[in-house]
Amino acid sequence: MKDDGVKIIKTTTWSPGPGCHGGCGILVHVKDEKVIKVEGDPDHPWNQGRLCSRCLSMTQYMYHKDRLKKPLKRVGERGEGKFEEISWDEAFDLIETKMKKIRDDHGAESFIFHQGTGRDIGGWISMLAYAYGSPNWMFGLSGISCYTPRLMMMSITQGDFAVVDASQWHEKRYDDPEYVMPETVTVWGQNLPATCPDGFFGHWYVDLMKKGTQFLVIDPRCTWIASRAKLWLQLRPGTDAALALGFIHVMVKEDLINTEFIEKWTNSPFLVRTDGECPVLLKESDLKKDGSKTNFIAHDPVSDSTIVWDTEKQAYDRYGLKPSMEGEFNISLTDGSKIKAKTVWTVYKENVEQYTPEKVSKITWVPADKIQKAARMYAKSKPSALHWGLPIDTIPSTIPTSQAINHLWCLTGNLDNPGGNAIARYAYDVVTYPYHAGGSVLSLPPEVAAKRIGMNDYGPIKDFRAWAQPDKVLEQIFSGDPYEVKGMWIQTANPIACTGMEPKKWRDAIKKLDFTVCVDLFMTPTAMLCDVILPAATFLEKNSLRAWWVPLNAIKKVVEVGECKSDIDINIELCKRFMKDFPYENTEQLFDKLLKSADITYKDLCDKTWMIPPKGHPSRPYFRHEKGLLREDKHPGFRTPSGKIELFSSWLEKWKLDPMPYHEEPPYSPVSTPDLFKDYPLILCTGRRMGPYFHSEHRQVPWLREQQTDPVLEIHPDTAQKYGISNGEKVCVENWLGKITVRALLTQVIHPDIVMAEHGWWFPEKEGKEPSLFGVWEVNVNQLIPMSHEGKGGLGSPIKSMLCKVYPNVA
């Protein structure tokens, strides 16, 4: 064959570029040091050759005429759109001088490090923040309403995260003899074919369907997957907790739970004090011992007998008792006082007793018989798996909602079993994205870490994430209490067009600061307001690695474009300037350190491209709780305070939140605000996913923009007729916070009382300087959603459940 000069290089996707959470293997065709084509790698176990249109359009993205290729310095007023090109040395020197002065004058905590969603940035921006000395690393979405609530609830309930097992841990995938096909997959609030993978790849739906898996879909819209499901439940936005509790009610009443699993692996047999204002989990130290190491005495009023309880194993079967035993027990405390207590399971059953299908139907709009049918379908399937999406995070009641849904696979024993919800750890325990507090490659002194904004307002913010709480950050920028905020580093984020609710407040906040830096690939509405803009590299122009969840992947630098630098290289250079004795000279040295748990160097990983952990490794399923592979002490059980799956959460109790799940009405709804509902009679749900775009990216890419040129509002034909709206015409969407103008898309996929809007829209082709900011104020639906409406634990916001009215745009 004639040599045409084309090299084909294997690598792995992540951001920047396709925008998403990455993980797909690709083949990159390079000629004359330029990428000419990108296609899926059929040998990669994640995507098996399949690829989205965003990644297929990488050549148009990388070589776009508007791509930022040199550092820029603002020379006019903020928002005036006047910048001049400078060298990297000038840019780094300017940033170093300005940021060190702010640190010297006001303290490092006065500078905010603002990132976007799950890109290849979490480890690197936290590293920069800590090298500078600031505890205020932040994701700017109100209530941190993106995956964090679900991750937190899984972590405190079962000690680890979990995702649907679609055989992604196996090199042979569905043909691996260890794998079992799920009989049912429940998809709760996500339209994966039109979005991005966050632990689950959209094409796997189709694979599983073809192999016989049935689908149960829960969504206000009849999505593509809902149209092919055996059962679809069209619920009212924001009422997911009630529906999950309705499922549990049916499962308990009809004995569709896995009793053996619950008794052995959950804290259901633990005792809860029930004679106070609220239930309290009893600890061994509270209880009167009978002289042995692990036992205490309880009196059973039913049998009028004294029982010795084993508190180490919490096993009652040898005394003829079961966790489901009804009634209260009289308990002797160490101080000699008497109290009443019930088992966790008894209290749990009493909690779900109120969520009858009939009551839940009134709350959710889902017919009672469908609730029963769906609960049976999920619980009777063996194995059964559940995949959930962003709508669970984007409601103020996200904590009890996430908890209730998480309990579904715990109550049925579908945790870390083949075809269930497999525990998902970082491949080979290589952590590049620091989910937990203190997960960065650097750490801060306790007295500095204690200045993190919002950590003392909310227990989950303090103990789970190392992030500052974004609603509190925005408030503090204007209040200056307890200290002033003077600067912001913005990387992989576009708060004016994407993550910022009430974005005009974010505009005013950025303009109020003394110094701001934006790292991006294109000029955006947010970048237009900043003092220095640094041009970032795409994933094809950098070295990196990905270990979220499997496989462990190398990301390889293939080409260079202009003077663009990778986020990692930018941050390491500044880390060395801000921190004396910064421990990493370059990216490869950093990667080698991170890869130590995999016993491989970055160079060797590049030679392999990807690696899947072997059987028996703690980062590979199955049944690790039985084998002592989940806990540091190597004992069977889970990585929770009790070593059990916590149906009654000791963490939530510590944070003074309700330790068991419950339904909470959205703050704006026909139920909670009936007077507002009279003026704004439609439920506004936002975040409709668009296949060509990832959040606020890609609007300038021709192949992608031609798929959808303008933002749309889904509205039911009957509703449109009621308000005199025709398909394709411009309509105003308005509530008490603001108004936008978008195009009507008449469709029967949406409920007549709900409209669905898109987010992240702006127009790169329009005027960039203020007041236009690329036309963002015409279409940004976040203007209709408030900040500072986070849930009780500092997580969640009413992004998916607002109110509005809709009418033709007559202007």
Describe this structure in words.
The strands form seven sheets. The chain has a seven-stranded mixed β-sheet with strand order 5-4-22-21-20-6-7, with helices on one face. The protein has five domains: 6-62, Phosphorylase Kinase, domain 1 (2-Layer Sandwich); 84-108 and 116-143 and 445-544 and 567-597, Rossmann fold (3-Layer(aba) Sandwich); 148-257 and 351-425, Dimethylsulfoxide Reductase, domain 2 (3-Layer(aba) Sandwich), CATH 3.40.228.10; 259-349, no CATH class; 674-808, Beta Barrel (Barwin-like endoglucanases), CATH 2.40.40.20. The chain is an alpha/beta fold and 811 residues long. Helix 5 (148-158) crosses helix 12, helix 7 (240-253) packs antiparallel against helix 10 and helix 7 crosses helix 11. 26% of the residues lie in helices and 18% in strands. The N and C termini lie far apart (63 Å). The chain contains 25 helices and 31 strands.
Domain module tally: 5
For the record, what CATH class of the largest domain applies?
Alpha Beta
Q: End-to-end span in angstroms?
A: 63 Å
Low-confidence stretches: 288-297, 299-308, 310-321
Number of strands: 31
In terms of topology, how is this protein built?
Layout: E1 6-12, E2 25-31, E3 34-40, H1 53-56, H2 58-62, E4 72-74, E5 83-85, H3 88-106, E6 111-115, H4 122-132, E7 137-139, H5 148-158, E8 162-164, E9 184-188, H6 203-210, E10 214-218, E11 231-233, H7 240-253, H8 259-265, E12 271-273, E13 280-281, E14 295-300, E15 305-310, E16 329-332, E17 338-343, H9 344-353, H10 357-364, H11 368-380, E18 384-388, H12 398-411, E19 421-423, H13 446-449, H14 459-463, H15 470-479, E20 487-491, H16 503-512, E21 515-520, E22 532-535, E23 544-546, E24 552-555, H17 567-578, H18 587-594, H19 602-608, E25 610-611, H20 624-627, H21 650-654, H22 674-679, E26 682-686, H23 702-705, E27 712-715, H24 717-722, E28 730-735, E29 738-746, E30 754-757, H25 776-779, E31 802-808
Parallel strand pairs: 6-7, 6-20, 9-10, 9-18, 10-11, 20-21, 21-22, 26-30, 27-29
Antiparallel strand pairs: 1-2, 2-3, 4-5, 4-22, 8-19, 12-13, 12-17, 14-15, 14-16, 16-17, 23-24, 24-25, 26-31, 27-30, 28-29, 28-31
Helix pairs in contact: 4-17, 5-12, 7-10, 7-11, 7-12, 10-11
